[in-house]
């Protein structure tokens, strides 16, 4: 069953989303060559706590694996769920930052990717295509549509540009839990999948590669990398389906 949010729940989720957007904006300012991913993690945690919220990912469990940090930082061939540490951000890195918090019992989830420093033209193209694909996917989050419309829009934008679509990881519903039904794949057929209804809140999150679709998980049990070592990008927003269209909760006015 897909949980539909009541108006009062959406009010709380709107606040949670704005708080996360503010955290993202603050942390973004500090991204630069030579900063360690551990320092980005510390800044993120401080910002989330200062906002009166708490980190969503720290202590998150999948089986026996416990995520040890506040933010997921995934560099280059790492797609998602990278663990912050002593690595320093280098010129030309494709840096994906995935943020999550919980406020008032409700989750917000958002990610962006940036090419640090000058970077390669192909990496900029990847990042731009992934960001645009998210926008096109969000546009399909409308009453009467279907989950497959979202994936179809995302896939239809990036494949013709020569990029791969990660299929082993997908977007998701979000609310009182970080991951709720439905699954929101970044591929699909128009007019297929769950019907979209008012009160659904979805984390839409294209994960796009410069190579193939296949991924694997590293020995740390978390870091997802492309199987062909190609670079990848990830953008995500938490989006509510309202009677008048999609409302992005994780963005500032
Ligand atoms: Mg996320
Ligand atoms: Mg997510």
Structural summary, described in words:
With 253 residues, the protein is α+β, with helices and mostly antiparallel strands. The chain has one domain: Creatinase/methionine aminopeptidase superfamily (Creatine Amidinohydrolase), CATH 3.90.230.10. It is 26% helix and 27% strand. It has a five-stranded antiparallel β-sheet with strand order 10-9-11-16-17. Strands 1, 4, 6 and 7 form a four-stranded antiparallel β-sheet that branches. Strands 5-14-13 form a three-stranded antiparallel β-sheet, with no helix packed on it. β2 and β3 form a beta hairpin. α1 packs across α2 and α3 runs antiparallel to α4. The longest helix is centred in the N-terminal third of the chain and has 22 residues. The mean pLDDT is 98. It binds magnesium ion (2 copies). The site of one magnesium ion has 6 residues, from β6 and β7.
Task: Please supply descriptive tags for the structure shown above.
Creatine Amidinohydrolase, 4-stranded antiparallel β-sheet, alpha+beta, single chain, 253 residues
Secondary structure blueprint with pairings:
Layout: H1 7-28, H2 37-50, E1 54-55, E2 61-62, E3 65-66, E4 72-75, E5 78-80, E6 94-103, E7 106-115, H3 121-139, H4 147-158, E8 164-165, E9 171-173, E10 180-184, E11 201-204, E12 207-209, E13 215-217, E14 224-226, E15 232-234, E16 237-242, E17 245-248
Antiparallel strand pairs: 1-6, 2-3, 4-6, 5-14, 6-7, 8-12, 9-10, 9-11, 11-16, 12-15, 13-14, 16-17
The structure holds magnesium ion (2 copies).
